[in-house]
Write a structure and sequence with these properties.
2 helices, mainly alpha
Length: 74
Amino acid sequence: MTIANVLSAMTTVYDLIIGMFANVITTITSNPLIFVPVLIALLGGIVMFAIGVIRRLGVRGISSSGRRRSRRRR
């Protein structure tokens, strides 16, 4: 096998994967029953990713109980 044959085989595999991906995207976008849950899941994933990045940066805010933590003064 030469390098040209390897590159040709890799190009064929790449084209096959891109074609399958395009077919899946077309199927999802053409059917509203599939499109809406996928869209909601993608948006939820983006929001959760943003929250994770913000927390990794050390930004603190409201605790999970919905109110700010406060120290008791004695």
